[in-house]
Amino acid sequence: MRIAVNAIFLQKNQLEGYGWFVQEVFSRLAKEYPEHEFIFLFDRPYDPSFVFEKNCTAVVVKPAARHVLAFKYWYDFAAAAQVRRLKADIWIQPYGFCSLTCSVPQLLFVHDISFTHFPKQVSWHQRWYYQWGTPRFLKKAKKVLTVSEFSKKDILAHYPMDPEKISVASGAARSIFHNIHWAEKDAIKSGYADGREYFLFVGGIHPRKNLLNLLKAFSLFKKWQKSNMRLIVVGRLAWQYTDLIEKLKTYKYREDVVMLNYVSDEQLAKITASAYALVYPSFFEGFGLPILEAMQSATPVICSNTSSMPETAAAAALFSDPNDPESIAKQMLAVYKDETLRDELVQKGKLRAAEFSWDTTAELVWSAILKTVQDFVE
After folding, report:
1. 263-280: string of b/e by CB count within 10 Å (b at 16+)?
2. What residue segments make up the domains of the chain, in order of their start?
C-alpha cells in the first residue's frame, strides 16, 4: 500500500500539537509496517529527520501553503496532482483540511472545531475558510478521526453525519516528559526563575489560551499569599497577542512573569518537570496534550472545566472556570498551601498519563487507514 501523508506542519524546531501527533504516530507506523510505503508531502524544504524509515520518502510540492488561497491551490491542485501521479492508495490529512478534487480516498483528522465556539478569535479569512470548508471536508473524506469523545460529539452536533464515519484516537505524553532529579530541578529554577518555585503555562499565545485571565489569577494569588512564586509562560506568539503584550508592560507583577517563547523539546520537558504546577486555563481544547505531559512529569495540574479537559484529566487535576480569574487563583492557592493535596495530584496524574499510549494511538490510526481503503474499494 502507498500511503501519502500531508506533512506541511512537520517543521524542525517548530512542532506543535498537529506536528507532534503526526511525528509520533507515523514514525511508529512506518517502523511497524515496513512492507508499506509512506510518502510525506511537504510544501517547503524539509528536515531529513522526518524521513523516519527506509520505507519513507519525501516529496516537496510547491507553492508553500500558508494562507487561504494557497491552501486551496495546494490541496485541490498541486498536491492532488502529485498524489495521483504517485498512485497513492490513500491520502492522510492530519490538519483539518482535505482536497475537494482528489479521487484518492482521504482520511481526515479534525482535532477540534474551536472556530465554531470562538469565531472572533481567528482572522476573518481563516474563519471564512473553516466555516465554508469544514462541512465540505467532512463530507468528502472517507473516514474522520478526532482526538477525544468530546470532539467527536461536538463535530457530530455541528455537522451531522453517520457516527460510524468518525472515530477517536487520542494523543499521549511523549517519552521525554518524566520526573527528574532534584538537582536538575534546582538548575532549571536557577536558570529560568531566579531560583524560585514557579507556576507554568505551555501553549501558543492567542486569545483561546486565556493568558489574560491567568495573569489576573496570578495577581490574586500574589495578593492573597504574598509569595515570591513566579509564572513561566512557554509558547510562541501565535495571533491576536498584542493586547496581552501591552498589558504586561504595566502589569504589577511583571518582574515575576517570565515569557520564554519557544524552547527546545528537551528544555520544555525539564521546565515542565521542575514546575510547582501547570496552570492550563484554556477556554477550549480538543484534547489538551500539555495536561498529560505535566502529569507524566510528576507535576500537578490545574486546568479548565470546559470542553475536553475534564475528559483528558479525569480525577487527576484541579478544575477551574476559565472565565473566572478568582476560580483559577483559588486552585493555585490550594495546590500551593496543601502539600498533601499536591502529592495526591502527582500520584493520580502519573496513573492517568499512563492510561494513554502513542503505540495505542498509532494502532487506532492504522485501523482507520485500513477501513478507509477497504470502504473505498467496496
Report:
1. beeeebbbbbbbbbbbbb
2. 2-172+357-377, 182-353
